[in-house]
Every structure is written in C-alpha cells, then in structure tokens.
Amino acid sequence: MSEYALLSPPLTEQILERSAQVLQKARESGQMLVTAESCTAGLLAAALTFHAGSSDVVAGGFVTYSNAMKTALLGVTTATLERFGAVSSETVSEMASGARNHAPGLPVSLSISGIAGPGGGSVSKPVGLVWFGSASARGILTDHKIFPGDRTQIRSAAVLHALNLLHNSLET
Predict the structure, then answer these.
(1) Residues 6+ away with beta carbon under 8 Å from 151
(2) CATH of 32-169, one of 2.40.40.10, 3.30.565.10, 3.90.950.20, 3.90.226.10
(3) pLDDT digit string (tens) for 78-104?
(4) How many CB atoms lie within 10 A of CB 156?
C-alpha cells in the first residue's frame, strides 16, 4: 500500500454538502463566486464545481501557490509579501481584491493562504495557520484559524471554513 492510500479524501461529504448550500445561496442572491487559493491549491474551486450546474454561479478560480503568481495574477504587491509574508491578513486581502477585480461582474471572492505542512512553520506562523479573505460589495473581511492535523486534514478544514465564510458573505 502506498503512503497516499492512507490519506483521507480532501473533499469530504461535509465539504460537498456545504458547497451545495453555498451554490444554492449564490443562486438565490444572484451573485457569482470566484476563488483565489494558495495552500488549498484549487480544492475550494473543486468543491464548488463538483456539483453539476455550478457554472451558473462560479466564475472561476485562481491557484497562486507561489508569491510570483500572487503578484502576476492577483496584483498582490511585492511590498506586502516582503513586509507581511504570504500567510497574512494583508496578503489574503489583496488576493481577494485581485480575484474579484479580474472576474466579470465583480463577484464575491474568497482567498486562502496558509501553512499546510508538514514543514514551513515557525513560532509566529505555525503549521496549520491559514488566513482567509473575502471581498464583496460590502468590503473586504479577513479571518484566520490554526487547524490541527496533517497536511490533508489542514487543507480539508481550511476548505470547509472557507465555504462557511463564503456562505456568510453572500447576501440574500
């Protein structure tokens, strides 16, 4: 058995159920969605687009794993990355704004940047720290959590939390 067989699937039943609820709320409110992901590498977009017909409310998503891609695609400034790092409130704010501004119709956007591990953590930014940004007509909000577990568990928990934030960001 390979090491990969021991990992739980990143898109759990709970995540898929919540993503269906997010899609329904987006339809009811007439709003489009766009994602900007780093540590989750497209898992949020995958959860949203798992469902047939999701293209009516999902504009698309950006996977910007490197700082260079965050700058090139989303307009995150080099100054922000140098001063605060990729895993920060400031960076996810710029990621969320950049995603929203690059998508048609100014949708609600959700950005994610974190340290999924197993390495890369520090005392001030431990493994499991994930920052979230949401941009909508109401402005930009950020939030962060420290999730326990291995890389797969952290990424799955981050996607579920992002879906909850996205659900709360949608106006009805």
Answers:
(1) 116, 117, 118
(2) 3.90.950.20
(3) 999 999 999 999 999 999 999 999 998
(4) 23
